[in-house]
Amino acid sequence: MKKRDRRKKKRLPGILILLVLTEIIVLVFAGYTAARYVLQKKEMTVAEASEFYFTSDLLRETTGDVPVYYIDPQNARFQIMLYNSADSQRVTSAEIAYTVKVTNGAADKTEGTIKGGIAGSSPITVIPAKDAEGTVEVTVTTTKPYAMTLSAAFTLALGNQYSIEDAEGNIAAVLTMNCTDDSKTVKLSLPEGVIPDNTNDRVEKEGEDYRFQSSGHEVYSIVLLKKDSGMNLSKSFIPFADEINIGNGS
Questions:
Q1: Quick one: average pLDDT of 78-106?
Q2: pTM over 0.90
């Protein structure tokens, strides 16, 4: 009996070693699984962030000077549109929540949401302060799913003007028109290889050119799609009457 006990005692170290090795293998596998989960989670977060789109017809995301528009001082109010997409193909899947801040004026809302999964929009009506002089500043900041700030300044002054926001490498430019007169049709002459986004129902083809129907006393924007991304259509505060000829810069 004593001999058998000694044999059992001799086997114990081997069993302990096996248990320790098993525990190490389990810990290593668990660590690998956890690391893989964290990596996958990180990759998913990066992918989701890259699919976040929050745009506006007038407001812009910028680290420098904000865009400036001219608004008829007789206007009691003007409208800004917010979108959860960059175009019909690039749409934010999650709901977007945002806040609105206006300096030297007010807005019809201080916060809002845009549902995700399908291209949507949300209007903001801005009311300049009574007898306001100078500039009305509008800032919209998203609170979920990601943080982004869009802003612009609106100067109360007369005069039809247009600007084009663009850069080499962009596949699209944004034409912004400040129409301070009454309802009218504006002729648009575009360079070869440039066409307006067909989702804008105010624009119609007319021969070799296009026509834009203005309701008067508003700020409008049109996305211009470029065949040649190396083309730069940038222009700032160009006056116009009833025609915009981008081809020759008038």
A1: 94
A2: no
